[in-house]
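Hi V.,

You were right to ask for the full record rather than a summary. Here it is.
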Amino acid sequence: MYPIELTSPMSKDLTDHGFEGLTSSEEVKDVLSQKEGTVLVVVNSVCGCAAANARPGAKFSLENDKKPDRLTTVFAGVDKDAVNTAREFMMPYPPSSPSIALFKDGKLVHFLERHHIEGRSAEIIAANLKMAYDRYC
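Predicted structure:
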C-alpha cells in the first residue's frame, strides 16, 4: 500500500474535477449495481502513464456533449477492497492499472486496459472515450 501523502495529490487530480472517490467495496457495489444510467470508473495508479495519459485523458474526455451520468475512481495500491470489487465488475478483463471502464445500465460496455493507455497521448485516450460516450451515454 502506498502512503497517503504520496497518493493524495493523485487522487485529487480526479476528485477536484468531479470524480467521486470510491474507497470501499460497498461503495463500488452500490454504484456499479445500478441498473440505469452510465458510470465511468478510472482505476487510478501512481505510475507515469496514469499521470501523463489516463488522468488527463479522462478529464479531457469530459469536454463532450454526451458524458457519463456518474464519474468515479478507485486507487490501485491504496483502496484494495474497492479496487478488487471494481475489477470483479470489469471481468473478463484481467486486473490493469491504470484502466478506464464505462458501464451502462450495470453492464461493462467499454474498457481501456493499461496497454491501451501506456504510450498514447491524453488526447487519443480522450477521443476514444468520447466515441464511447457518444455511443452509450
